[in-house]
Design a protein that fits this description.
The chain contains 16 helices and 28 strands. The protein is an alpha+beta fold and 608 residues long. The strands form five sheets. Strands 1, 2, 3, 4, 5, 6, 7, 13, 15, 16 and 20 form an eleven-stranded antiparallel β-sheet that branches. Strands 21, 22, 23, 24, 25, 26, 27 and 28 form an eight-stranded mixed β-sheet that branches.
Length: 608
């Protein structure tokens, strides 16, 4: 067995360097290592083992993938145990040591040869050649950590292909002409050509927004329109709530399974539109081919929500340096078993105690340390993860409340008879007050034209505030929003802008009434489109019926939402914001708290 340690210095802090160094999948791709398909084999105790095969330089390899261990921003250890190839084991370990000017990386490779070829490789400069290649990658990480480039590693673009280049050019033209590209079509085109395969297997609009420092709404509309333009394709994934991996996938919403099994975690779970059903994107095969497979199954940055992953032998305790950011966390194991949710507010953390499949909390460890104790009779892999893991996930609930989705993906609906629970959606109902007089005044044809203009007026405001018009009913509109604060802003904007719309359109003395409510409901397919049903929907419609001309009536439940409360505090002085009142609503036996808002009393001309 031979070991060699390499050392590199960085001018950036460990957290910045970790984004590249800990991204072992992209690191392996940039190093020229091949993709491989993982075989998951369940063991008698319910745990899983992972096996893979590949060829490197014409040499056939077969190995067991040992789950990577790491503490975020500090170190990782990656081991492969080979049954075929020149080595018996290959272990990579990296540690980031803070320094005055940044940090130092100590990277160790340990190789155990399995025969003459392995010994010849070690004697022939295996470590020296690896160091030279890794030094180039460390230069890439250095530039990325200093924010001199968007992505950690550069790849060599493939050979020019006239047909795919022509298709890409046509797609970009369509995308630019659509109005949904927000000036980003060129960046998306370059990304599709230049990015690593790891970046393209699941393109996440919110991640692009963070990298490009633009609004997530803009990159979402960009990707949706890019599907119609032929640059991208879309895919629905049901993510495992433990490992976040996509385990049930389909290019159509109506073909997603309701229950899914994750072989990696050996757990079964159900789809949740608001949490684990994601819409992601990948290049159209006509533009760029992306192969299936893995570069590193358990790479730390593959699982950015996992801060600690470490194996603990039976009967042993491990104390690991770890200082988390305050917030919601979960203690669990990589193997099937229990979990514990905790809130971390300081440096002292409760110990994580493993006993068989049970996970419990123990006494606090010293500040800056996470203590992992295994009281069971077999090795377990402890995991400490952030529960805020959906930050970059474009959920089905969120995307289906966007107008661009309804415009571009009208055929994406649920199976007939399928019902999906939505934990929260905000609905806005509007209605034209005085529309009967409008028909008498200008006649059916003229009134119809004005009502259509009024629909366009409302749709523009709904879209601006990241919502979608679900349907029109006569001269009424039903719109949905993922964020109640967006619905609140939209309702107020309608009333503040309606006078100018009336003057421009000749709508006359008619007014608009607005009702707002948020809560749980079910999503279904009705008349070949996504729709919402339930008591919450009925109440939102009833509130619109209680509104007077020019008013916004919002339910007490929605008014107390933290985001809505902040919007109201920004728009109204304390003395002008009405208090909640109780009102009887048709179909309900008890009074409903509501708030009547006169947008004319707000401090802003046009809420945005």
């Amino acid at each position: 067995m031979a070991t060699r340690t390499f050392t590199w210095t960085f001018d950036s802090p460990p957290a910045a360097v970790w984004e590249g160094l800990g991204d072992t999948a992209r690191f392996n791709e940039a190093a020229g290592l091949p993709k491989h398909v993982i075989r998951e084999i369940e063991q008698d105790d319910g745990s899983m083992r992972f096996f893979a095969e590949a060829k490197v330089g014409g040499i056939a390899l077969a190995w067991e993938e040992v789950p990577v261990e790491w503490v975020r921003d500090r170190w990782f250890r990656h081991e492969r145990r080979f049954s075929k190839g020149p080595f018996r084991t290959l272990i990579a370990q990296a540690e980031l040591e803070p320094s005055t000017d940044g940090c130092v990386c100590h990277y160790s490779l340990t190789a155990e040869p399995s025969g003459l070829l392995g010994r010849a490789l070690l004697a022939g400069g295996f470590f020296s050649k690896t160091e030279r290649g890794f030094t180039k990658l460390m230069d890439d990480i250095r530039a990325f950590a200093a924010r001199r480039r968007e992505r950690p590693f550069q790849i060599k673009p493939g050979k020019p292909n006239a047909r795919s280049d022509a298709r890409r050019s046509r797609a970009i033209e369509k995308l630019t002409e659509s109005g949904n590209d927000h000036g980003l079509s060129g960046r998306l085109s370059d990304f599709v050509v230049e990015a690593q395969e790891m970046d393209l297997m699941a393109i996440r609009p919110k991640r692009l927004a963070r990298q490009w420092q633009v609004e997530p709404h803009d990159t979402t509309e960009l990707c949706l329109e890019a599907v119609r333009a032929g640059l991208l394709e879309s895919r629905w994934d049901v993510l495992c709530p433990r490992c976040r991996g996509p385990k049930g996938s389909s290019d159509r919403l109506d073909q997603l399974p309701e229950k899914i099994h994750c072989g990696s975690c050996n757990v079964s779970y159900e789809r949740d539109f608001a949490r684990n059903v994601e819409l992601s994107f990948h290049p159209s095969p006509a533009i760029r081919q992306v192969q299936n497979g893995e570069f590193c199954l358990f790479g730390p940055m593959n699982l950015p929500h996992v801060l600690v992953q470490a194996a603990v032998p039976p009967g042993e305790t491990r104390d690991l340096p770890f200082t988390p950011i305050p917030g919601p966390y979960r203690y669990r194991t990589l193997e099937r078993g229990g979990e514990q949710d905790i809130e971390i507010s300081g440096d002292s953390l409760a110990s994580l105690i493993l006993d068989g499949e049970h996970v419990s909390l123990g006494p606090p460890a010293p500040p800056g340390v996470i203590r992992l104790e295994n009281r069971g009779d077999r090795t377990r892999t402890a995991v400490v993860e952030s529960r805020a893991w959906v930050a970059e996930v474009l959920t089905a609930h969120e995307v289906t409340t966007l107008q661009a989705f309804h415009d571009l993906f009208s055929d994406q609906v649920l199976r007939p008879g399928d019902e999906v629970s939505i934990s929260q959606v905000a609905l806005m109902f509007t209605d034209l007050a005085g529309s009967t007089n409008l028909y008498d005044r200008v006649g059916d044809a003229g009134a119809y034209h004005l009502v259509r203009e009024h629909f366009a007026f409302l749709a523009a405001i709904v879209r601006k505030h990241r919502g979608a018009v679900v349907k029109t009913i006569g001269d009424a509109v039903m719109a949905a929003f993922a964020d109640p604060a967006d619905a609140m802003r939209a309702g107020l904007a309608v009333q503040r802008q309606v006078d100018e719309f009336r003057r421009q359109s000749g709508l006359g003395e008619v007014a608009i009434k607005v009702g707002l409510h948020s809560g749980a409901c079910i999503a279904v397919t009705l008349n070949d489109r996504l729709d919402y049903f339930g008591t919450m929907v009925n109440l939102a419609a009833r509130l619109q019926g209680l509104a007077r001309s020019g008013e916004v009536v919002v339910s007490g439940a929605m008014a107390e939402d933290p985001g809505v409360a902040q919007v109201l505090a920004e728009l109204f002085d304390a003395g002008t914001l009405p208090e909640l009142e109780d009102a009887m609503v048709r179909g309900l036996s008890k009074p409903v708290p509501l708030m009547r808002l006169d947008p004319g009393l707000s401090k802003m001309e046009t809420p945005s």
